[in-house]
Amino acid sequence: MKQLSILALSLVLLTTAITAQTTSKALERNAAFTGATTTKKMYHAIYQLDVNDPKIIEKAIRNINNALTDPRLAGKIEIELIAFGGGTDAYMKGSKYEEDLKALIEKGVIVSQCNNTLKERKINRDQLYNFIAIVPSGNGELIIRQAEGWSVIKP
After folding, report:
1. 107 and 133 share a domain?
2. Which of 9, 41, 62, 87 is deepest in the core (most CB within 10 A)?
3. Cβ contact 139:46 at 8 Å
4. CA–CA distance from 90 to each of 11, 34, 98, 101, 153 (Å)?
5. What is the reported pLDDT for 14?
6. Counted domains in the chain
7. Packing angle between helix 98-106 and helix 54-69, nearest 10 degrees?
8. Are 58 and 1 found together in one domain?
């Protein structure tokens, strides 16, 4: 019986040592990971902005800038920011986002607005910044872009 107990204890200790060693290797492997690698010539992402919450608007702008400055995506990414619903407020003249939006456009980002929202909210085109593109439907834009293989991102 004593030999069986020693054998059982030995197995527990061996299992613990193997588990610790395996865990240690997994932790080392994870620490060495530097992210996915690009394998395509081009990547496409459309960011959905449908709320007027300043934290979400600022997050969308920050996320887009982060993607644009990711060295793996340099020269390989096309981005669109589509606003509809409450997100339209970011594009209204007098909003605090004018310079941020212009900066995105200067970096090649398409900044677009849903025309259906303008109609529903009775917003005239001249109430928006004049550099905003208008598309027939925000949802239609998302559907088309996703069908074309674009990543749809909702900050």
Report:
1. yes
2. 87
3. no
4. 64, 35, 8, 9, 17
5. 55
6. 2
7. 20
8. no
- The distance between the two most distant Cα atoms of the chain, rounded to a whole number of Å, is 90
Which residue range(s) make up the domain with 55? 43-153
- Three-state SS for 43-98 is EEEEEEECCCCHHHHHHHHHHHHHHHHCHHHCCCEEEEEEECHHHHHHHECCCCCH
Claim to verify: residue 26 and residue 71 sit in the same structural domain: no
Residue 38 lies in a domain: no
Please state the rounded mean pLDDT for residues 21-47: 92
Side by side, the strands of the sheet bearing 77-83 are 133-135, 110-114, 77-83, 43-49, 151-153
Instruction: Check whether residue 50 and residue 118 sit in a common domain.
Output: yes
91 and 49 share a domain?
yes
* pLDDT higher than 80, residue 19: no
139 pLDDT exceeds 90?
A: yes
The structure's pTM equals 0.84
